[in-house]
Design goal:
It is globular, with a radius of gyration of 21 Å. It is of the alpha/beta class. It contains ten helices and 13 strands. The strands form three sheets. A five-stranded mixed beta sheet has the order 3-2-1-4-8. It has two domains: about 140 residues, Nucleotidyltransferase, domain 5; about 170 residues, ATPase, nucleotide binding domain (Nucleotidyltransferase, domain 5). The structure holds zinc ion (ZN). The site of zinc ion has 6 residues, from loops.
């Protein structure tokens, strides 16, 4: 007798919105059915749980759900599905997996959002063509996810590939990062941090006049600086020439340490800054050791990658429990 159709949900829980996707399971993989995006009403854990429950029921309709994968920006302890720290939601030690599982009565899998993206790109975006892939997403922060030998590497504390907190500047006046340390690459090029210091750097610039000092856009983000650099603005170019080698070095070091084969780059800062991208790529190529040079590729699934990845991790959890 044929098995009843199985359905899985992938969720991307950001600081301001909840994105949800429904997938149908075939014998080996998942096929997308529908996608939904909603703004969170609040970030209080109980409100978020209510919202997840409501959304899953809306998306699922009459279909039974066999598993839910949740990608969350933050530190996740992999074994027990607890969100240790999610700064955007202001959550500490919240047992998200257990709560969602008991409300909706199915298997759950909670993973870091960029790990979900990396897994989604590995399995669906590039269809397992590359067994190694370091995925770096530059948006509000800078996140990383690492696939090696076809496995997602989560590390001893679930913190492997946290590339945003790799140090890029060692001087005593290095910028302070949200993690509490100084000199992290995210303190410089994470979208949120960048927006907080760029105004002050423009004000203290004593070189040739920059059109950015009169830019009506507020707050300025990396895209504005990139546009100015493309137009030949001296300030913007000098800033990019200072920051691009820092990121290029961090990427080259990560590739040297992991021999990942592919460096998959994405996120709004990366996508919206073509001048920075070119300079970082150049600098990465200068720094990286030739034998382990990873090819830089673009994201294929864009903002859907994490939904695929999270749902597939829940699907895998069910498969492995069937085998056990
Ligand atoms: Zn940091």
């Amino acid at each position: 007798m044929p098995r009843m159709a199985e359905f899985y949900i992938g969720i991307d829980l950001g600081g301001t919105n909840l994105r949800t996707a429904l997938f149908k399971a075939t014998s080996k993989t998942l096929e997308p059915v529908s996608f939904l995006k909603d703004n969170l009403r609040s970030t209080r854990p109980d409100d978020v749980l209510d919202f997840i429950e409501e959304t899953v029921k809306t998306v699922a309709g009459e279909r039974g759900i066999s598993g839910i994968g949740l990608g969350v920006a933050g530190m996740i302890s992999a074994g027990d599905q607890i969100v240790r720290r999610a700064p955007n939601l202001d959550w500490t030690d919240f047992p998200l997996g257990k709560e969602v599982s008991s409300r909706l009565g199915c298997v759950t899998e909670v993973i870091n959002d960029v790990n979900a993206i990396a897994w989604g790109e590995y399995v669906f975006g590039y269809e397992k063509k590359y067994p190694g892939m370091l995925c770096v997403f530059m948006g509000t922060g800078i996140g990383g996810g690492l696939i090696l030998d076809g496995h997602l590497v989560e590390g001893s504390h679930g913190m492997a590939a946290e590339i945003g907190h790799v140090k890029a500047v060692a001087s005593p006046d290095a910028r302070k990062c949200g993690c509490g340390k100084s000199g992290c690459i995210e303190a410089y090029l994470g979208g949120k941090n960048f927006g907080s210091w760029i105004g002050e750097v423009i004000d203290s610039w004593d070189g040739a006049a920059t059109k950015l000092s009169n830019d009506p856009a507020f707050p300025l983000h990396a895209g504005h600086v990139d546009e100015a650099a493309a137009a030949g603005d001296i300030f913007a170019l000098s800033l990019w020439n200072e920051l691009a080698p820092a990121l290029g070095m961090v990427l080259a070091n990560a590739v040297t340490l992991t021999d990942c084969g592919v460096l998959l780059m994405g996120g709004t800062v990366w996508d919206n800054c073509p001048v920075l991208r070119r300079l970082v790529t150049q600098s990465y190529n200068d720094f990286v050791n030739t034998p382990s040079r990873a090819t830089i590729l673009d994201s294929r699934l864009g903002d859907k990658a994490g939904l695929y990845g999270a749902a597939h991790r829940a699907f895998m959890r069910n498969l492995s429990s069937e085998i056990d």
